[in-house]
Amino acid sequence: MMVKTDWVLVVLLLGLVFSRVEGAEGRKERILEGSSYELAYSAMNCRRHSASIKDFGGVGDGKTLNTKAFQKAINQLSKYASDGGAQLVIPAGHWLTGSFNLTSHFTLFLHRDAVLLASQEINQWPVIDPLPSYGHGRDAPGGRYVSLIFGTNLTDVIITGENGTIDGQGALWWQQFHGEKLKYTRPYLIELMHSDKIQISNLTLVNSPSWNIHPVYSSNIIIQGITILAPVTSPNTDGIDPDSCTNIRLEDNYIVSGDDCVAVKSGWDEYGIKYGRPTSHLIIRRLTCISPYSAAIALGSEMSGGIQDVRVQDITAIHTESGIRIKTGVGRGGFVKDVYVKGMKLHTMKWVFWMTGNYGSHADTHWDPKALPEIKGINYRDVVAENVSMAGQLEGISGDSFTGICMSNVTIGLAKNSKKYPWACTNVEGISSSVQPPPCRLLADQGPKKIGMCDFPTESLSIDNIEMQRCSYRLNY
Q1: Keywords on this record (predicted)?
Q2: Residue 377 in contact with residue 339, Cβ under 8 Å?
Q3: What is the spatial distance between Cα 384 and Cα 396, in angstroms, rounded to a whole number?
């Protein structure tokens, strides 16, 4: 249950995004005809076959466990993968379930009044191995509980709806975590591995046991129109974590969480270095975020496979610890480079810019002290922030400076109780133009209104060229 202050933050967020949500509702088309209705929504591909979870014995009373019904439905519908694909509709109701696996050429569609309730019986959560690029559990040394909605080696998967809800009922897991009673790492709400052509859209995710959406070792991903809500004190409830993925588009998402709203990752220490799969070609636009103890967007800390070509636009963050944060350290290896941030509106935070090479938090004792990360080509422009304690804290690594930092057209309003010195910089190199308050000398001032500084690349990414289709389905209930 959220405490009072959490709900105040949620109200602030919903007030900001209400007009956007209204616009999204206006794009939905619904035609009611007796006991039938037709749904039109955006999807990568339309499906030829449809069924309801009720057709497989599902009961939406919030008490009956539906894990077997979900798996039976998906197994049956998988036979249509080569015949136009299939869709499983979750009607209005409360559908209690343990973890289930998706299939290729498949759509999971939640009615606007549908709620998927994650089972709180831990035996409903199978345990799987740690990710190879992590080599170690995050909450405990061994394996991890599989995610509520899971899939691996899939093609063309859609998880969408009319803003239906997935409720992780995470309080039990948070208590177990804080009490150090977990034998394995907590589950996520949605995880898709080694998959291609993924869409997750138009849903509300609440109270995840840990991370909410985790695409990993995957490509061609669109995550759009998602609302994520968790108490701001809940542990590790990251919003969206693209991890060793390529060609990703995150847009129009609204997140209140107890950790980073978006956390970009690519593996942990020697395991991520060995696996060697970076996250690259990532677009993040029109994100609205509240997270008082974490960042709107974090790059790392698990970035040992590398992060490159990240394009961020139109970010609104209220009461977050920082705007964009780069987290790394000795032993991480990897790189974060070619990052472009344009258009941030920020209100009430400790740091607007935060880079640290002292993050630590190693997978185990086998990390290599000679594995130094490369942080290079980090560009920010058109940033407005208010009520800020400190403009920036930029901490590179001795003998391994963060280079190519660029800031242009940045205006930061400091809070009444702000730090005496608004900037702290060590082991960094870069340039600046029209930045207030003036940054540290390590970001050499290029004079006012320097044309073209810190600009976005002009070429588009392939993920931006995927056009959503309008699909209609009819079901009798």
Answers
A1: Glycosidase, Hydrolase, Signal
A2: yes
A3: 24
Closest CA to 5 of 232, 167, 288, 207: 232
Q: How many CB atoms lie within 10 A of CB 386?
A: 15
| Cis peptide upstream of residue 389 (ω within 30 degrees of 0) | no
Catalytic sites, residue numbers: 259
Residue 10 pLDDT: 47
CA distance 184 to 104: 28
Residue 292 — φ and ψ, nearest 5°? -60, -20
Given a contact cutoff of 8 angstroms between Cβ atoms, the answer to whether 396 and 359 are in contact is no
Q: Around Cβ 69, how many Cβ atoms within 10 Å?
A: 20
Under 8 Å CB-to-CB from 87, ≥6 apart: which residues? 47, 49, 50, 51, 77, 106, 107, 108, 109, 473
Q: Which two tokens stand for residue 76?
A: 């049956």
- Per-residue model confidence (pLDDT) at position 17: 43
Q: For residue 450, count other CB atoms closer than 10 A to its CB.
A: 16
pLDDT of residue 42: 57
CA distances 39 to 31, 111, 395, Å, are 7, 9, 51
Of 111, 225, 81, 203, nearest to 148 by C-alpha is 203
**What pLDDT does residue 412 have?**
98
The parts of the chain modelled with pLDDT lower than 50 are: 1-11, 13-14, 16-41, 477
Answer whether 268's CB lies under 8 Å from 303's CB: no
The predicted pLDDT at position 330 comes to 98
C-alpha distances (whole Å) from 398 to each of 5, 287, 401 are 40, 34, 6
Residue 466: per-residue pLDDT: 86
Rounded Cα–Cα distance for residues 238 and 66 (Å): 27
Single pTM value for the model: 0.92
What is the C-alpha separation between 91 and 440, in angstroms, rounded? Answer: 57
Tell me what pLDDT residue 34 has.
28
The count of other CB atoms within 10 Å of the CB of residue 175 is 10
Sign of the CA dihedral running 362, 367, 369, 371: negative
Report pLDDT for 422.
97
Q: Alpha helix locations (H) across 147-287?
A: 171-178, 269-275
User: Could you tell me the CA-to-CA distances from 208 to 186, 240, 249, 284, 292 in Å, in that order?
Assistant: 10, 12, 22, 22, 18
In the prediction, which pLDDT does 20 show?
40
3-state class percentages of the chain: helix first, strand second, coil last, to nearest 5? 15, 50, 35
